[in-house]
Amino acid sequence: MGAIVQAKSSAQANSPAAVEVIDDEGSVITLNRPAERLISLAPSLTEIIYAAGAGNRLVGVVEFSDYPAAAIQLPIVGRHDLLDLETILSLAPDLIIAWQTGNPRASITRLRELGITVYVAEPKDLGTIADHLDNVGVLTGTSPVAAAASDAFRRALRTLNESYARRTPVATFYQVWDQPLISAGGNELINDIITLCGGRNVFADISMVAPKVSVEAVLARNPDVIIASGMNEERPEWLDRWRNWPSLTAVANGSLYFIPPDLLQRHTPRALVGARQLCEFIDSARTAP
Fold it and tell me: Which residues lie below 8 Å from residue 251, measured CB to CB, with a gap of 6+?
């Protein structure tokens, strides 16, 4: 579930502009006034901040924060897994938006010890993306923009669910990478999107994130469709190596597809763009002769 969003009354907070939300660690995050200097510690969180209307308040981001284009011009505060605390402190943020499972725990603890407010986010499914839009809106005073974005996201998500979720299940293999061969387990956003589209993730029984699998395991589970990720906007050449196994149902039906990774592997509003593509590909496999 997403975090519960609250706004403090002036009597409670001794300030008419005080705001309060609950983050994904269950911590109550309180600010005496909406944040004006934000740092994002994940590319996906950078996107959420912009979508919530608070992009002009960002003063720093981590590497690979490349969407929207304006984010590329912002100061870099390290990688998501190797933060430059000195640079972060020099930018004097009044709020840091952190990635629960992606940022070093010791660094987040240290930032809090230094008196910086840290909101921790971990969008676990599509619905929680909208929740974080709302929370960022509260924390930055951009709720009208954030609410419009979250409402549009929820409506689009509902439409996809109504269109595809009850259709005949399609055995789906999502391939993140080739060497090593990496898929998506049952506790990931990708699994949530596959289910939304009426698909059945052939590796949903694996609880770990981004599990390494074998070619033999893929052949044994015989997916109806294979959908690949990759490094960038170009279809990876390794996707077509599956044609070496013509008896595989996905190969026999010509159901080998590619979706750019940023549209599915970042927990952002753009995930719905990738979800629509994935639903269409799964539906094509569903109706294959």
Answer: 242, 243, 245
β-strands 95-99, 118-121 pairing: parallel
pLDDT digits (tens, 9 = 90+) for 28-76: 999 999 999 999 999 999 999 999 999 999 999 999 999 999 999 999 9
Residues 102-159 pLDDT 10s: 999 999 999 999 999 999 999 888 999 999 999 999 999 999 999 999 999 999 999 9
Location of structure tokens 């309060």 = 20
Q: How far apart (Å, rounded) are the C-alpha atoms in residues 224 and 286? A: 8
Q: What sign has the CA pseudo-torsion 184, 190, 192, 196?
A: negative
What string of DSSP letters covers 220-235? HH--SEEEE--SSSSP
Buried b (16+ CB within 10 A) or exposed e, 225-260: bbbbbbeeeeebeebeebeeeeebbbbeeebbbbbb
Closest CA to 256 of 275, 273, 277, 242: 242
Contact status, residue 276 vs residue 245, Cβ threshold 8 Å: no
Task: Tell me the domains of the chain and their CATH numbers.
Answer: 5-155 (3.40.50.1980), 165-286 (3.40.50.1980)
The DSSP call for residue 242 is: G
Q: Strands 256-258 and 95-99, how do they pair?
A: unpaired
Report residue 112 as tokens: 């809090």
In angstroms, the CA 8 to CA 139 distance is 11
